[in-house]
Design goal:
The chain is an alpha/beta fold. The chain has 9 helices and 17 strands. Strands 1, 2, 8, 9, 10, 11 and 17 form a 7-stranded mixed beta sheet that branches. The chain has a 7-stranded mixed beta sheet with strand order 6-5-13-14-15-12-16, sandwiched between helices. It has a 3-stranded antiparallel beta sheet with strand order 3-7-4.
Length: 383
Amino acid sequence: MSIHSFDYAIIGAGAAGLHLAMQLAADKAFEGKTVLILDKDEKKSNDRTWSFWEKGITDWDKISTKSWNKAVFYSKSKQYLLPLSNHHYKTIRSADFYAHAKKIIAKHEYFTWLHDEVADVTDQTITGAKSKYHAGHIFDSRLPSSFTQKNGQHVSLIQHFLGWFIETEEPIFDEDEITIMDYRVRWKSQTSFHYILPFSSQKALIEFTLFNESLLAQEDYEKVLRGYIEEQLGIKNFKIIEEEKGQIPMSTYPFHLHHEKYLTKIGTAGGWVRPSSGYSFKNAQRYSAKILNNIKKGREPHLGVAVNRFRFYDKIFLAVLKERNDLGAEIFERLYTRQPIVSLFRFLDEGSTWLEDIKIMLSLNQPIFRKALRKVILRKQRV
């Protein structure tokens, strides 16, 4: 089996891998460096949808399916209109993102994109099903095998969801306003909500999402989702155009411990997903930039990536949801309605000030969070 050599190798062409690849392609400091991208799939189909908020108009608008400047939050009994100020909520279909990344990468002859399934990585050598590859540094998006082993030292929940892209017979939706969370219909009092992205007055993505420890049977997702559409929204006649289903780990697992001299974990495997929200798209952009900046300064690539005070906050948040999952609706209502939404956006994007952090913490259910704080500190001491 022949060995192909590269300066850098990226395992996995998802959001993390392609954000990193595009920034390598755009940075003149890496011009001429050979880059290998390995993924077993061709990345042509739409396998997920990424949503995020940004200020004003940016380059992502070129491939965004739609953006919105109005949002609404529903608690069990109240509706809140959320002023987004100069922010827009945007959504990108993965097929469009993949095509965009491929177009950029194709302009650089020193990039190689191969379809191969990685079986093993040892030092600087990648063993695939088809060939072997050598790289000066490897960026790996595969989850460590130890992540699935429950040892009591970390808290793990799952954000799991089923979404339907539907088309209605009559104009139903306000196409300028998203429903960011709707807690009026839940699954057994657990942290679960619905989410609506309207693409027109007759087309929308409606998603049922849970933050807990156990997946549901397919028919349970469908039953709750259909009941919400028909009974809560009053939509009796609609056509399901497309289905979106997935699960995102929300965990305090120490992914950063799996970085090695010649290997940096990225994406979910690098702890890039915010455990408190599941948001990852903008993290992938921000963390990729940090990695390249570290390399240019002669530092370890992972330095300062996904290890900060916000991860400590997330540990407390997950500890609360694990012990009192029924409090999710109350917690998110307080988060989204007791301070300016743009302050929450900065907090979730890890750009808030200490003062903003304190205000957000004080808006929550303080006794249960103080209890969780003690548990997190004691767990850390035991480790």
